[in-house]
Write a structure and sequence with these properties.
Elements: E1 3-6, H1 30-35, H2 44-55, E2 59-67, H3 71-80, E3 88-91, H4 99-113, E4 116-121, H5 124-132, E5 137-139, H6 150-161
Parallel strand pairs: 1-2, 1-4, 2-3, 4-5
Helix pairs in contact: 4-5
The protein binds magnesium ion (MG).
């Protein structure tokens, strides 16, 4: 069975309410940023994309740059949204590489077990790297409206700190 792989932040979960925790130039509170994830609103377009993938006969996997220490919170959040139980790949707690490096490696590993049909991700750097590695990617852009600059902030912190 082929796999549809879904990023969480910015694809299924609306992170805009907690970006302020990591938008400071001097102080970035990553613990607060991740702790607030339990309150993320779901993104309807993302939930719909998961339903569509399942209806298309694809197996689901979740692939997130969130650290492993957020696993319990993340699994209960996914269940509360009515999302199907599925394998959840998270960044090891000590892995500070950019999201694109972690995610392409994880995609290659997943692909060994079941061929990856596509990845759905909102991060332009991840999209580009995954495509370069030969994976089809759907670039999720549905969290864009509303708060100017969220994409840029998340992009900056992902690229410079390798933390989300
Ligand atoms: Mg994302």
């Amino acid at each position: 069975m082929r796999l549809a792989v879904f990023d969480i932040d910015g694809v299924l979960a609306d992170v805009r309410h907690r970006v302020h925790h990591v938008d400071g130039r001097r102080h970035r509170d990553w613990d607060a940023f991740f702790a607030a994830a339990v309150s993320d609103p779901a993104l309807p377009e993302g939930l719909q994309a998961v339903s569509q993938a399942a209806a298309d006969g694809l197996a689901i996997a979740y692939l997130t740059g969130r650290p492993e220490r957020c696993r319990a919170d993340t699994e209960s959040w996914l269940a509360r949204q009515g999302l199907p139980p599925a394998p959840l790949r998270m960044r090891p707690d000590d892995d500070r590489r950019p999201a694109r490096a972690f995610k392409v490696e994880a995609l290659r590993d997943l692909d060994q077990g079941s061929p990856v049909a596509y990845l759905v991700d909102d991060d332009a750097a991840v999209v580009e790297s995954a495509r370069s590695a030969g994976f089809p990617v759907i670039h999720a852009c549905w969290m864009d409206g509303g708060t100017d600059g969220v994409d840029r902030i998340l992009y900056d912190v992902q690229e410079t700190e390798g933390r989300t």
